[in-house]
């Protein structure tokens, strides 16, 4: 967990008859031979039995967490029993308190889990990246199902730990890359499985992120911290720095102490497509270059604390039983995008107006799509459009309601670990963990790229990390540049830890 006082309560017993829902289900089975009363007779049309409702707690809902909590609540199909956020002054936090007046309110998730642990069935985690792992781990250790926003974690080690903990504690998990529940992704899988583009050798991924200030000098702390914000709790396991609105509530993404830059923000959405279509595993190599910032003539800024304004990352994946070709995956951010592929016909627009998109290039054809796997198109090698997937009917144009990704998770939680509903989830940690590790591999390379050492003559610096890095995925280790391994995990602040 993340406490140093060893006050973590014993996890709820695994025996189903000793849990709230398990007791109800066991009692129902025991009496089933005597009386079966249809649910609608008891409560009328549309009635949901209390035993069929999930008791949910939300941690972090001043931003994306507002929709995560309410989509999981699903208009009363489940109960929102506790709400936890370190900043009660944010507009969405106040709105959620009003929307769920009976939910208990907390600032410290540890206190919430200690006091409400026997009531809570599942937890949504939508905090800043640097606290995803400690919150999710604390919940899973108590046997709570978890929904965690993307990227799953702040670093590679945390992603591996959460993936293994989900299996150990037998909980139902889902990462918040909602595009994975987009049925249009199934269309791309089908095209590839039919051999319509052959074996894929090159993947291009691009985004206009960052859309917040990034590559800027480290901000100075503000004179005052907002009265409704517990800054120490917001920092959690991160190294202690002073509060500034340049970090909270949104711009933390551009600083390594808290966020994971453009890759962390969008990588799990866009990289999801090739992972799902091609069945990729761990990469074997990574190399990068990044944009520079000049505030003085001829003098580039050196800001190792911050993410760069733009980056170009190349990941190498080995051939597999599904895709019998090595894959070069090229990531471009900061508004950079790939040149037009030969198989994309003249006049055909880039996906999503060129701002965010995916190209899967095979030896027979090309698949293109936008963010979340939207609007996929298939082209033959001759450059003629062969097929465009029909736009599915749905609330968001993806053939699935806006809350579908969270609702599928809540239904899987009710069905239980290893149920068919659980196995049908598109981004449980068994999939989301390795995906996140590959996304964050790009950040490891970016941070290695900025490492520098003074030259012997004192004139300038050398940059030993500017090389192709070899990755041993199983053992989470760079094998040809040991200094890069400091970025596999982070040093937690005193009083915080992560143990499965």
Automatic annotation (TrEMBL):
Matches recorded under InterPro entries: Gfo/Idh/MocA-like_OxRdtase_N (IPR000683), Gfo/Idh/MocA_oxidrdct_glycsds (IPR050463), Gfo/Idh/MocA_OxRdtase_bact_C (IPR043906), NAD(P)-bd_dom_sf (IPR036291)
**Domain called Gfo/Idh/MocA-like oxidoreductase N-terminal: residue spans:** 56-176
Q: Which residues form the Gfo/Idh/MocA-like oxidoreductase bacterial type C-terminal domain?
A: 221-273
What terms describe the molecular function in GO for this protein?
A: nucleotide binding
Note the superkingdom of the native organism: Bacteria
Name recorded for this polypeptide: Gfo/Idh/MocA family oxidoreductase
Organism listed in the record: Spirosoma taeanense
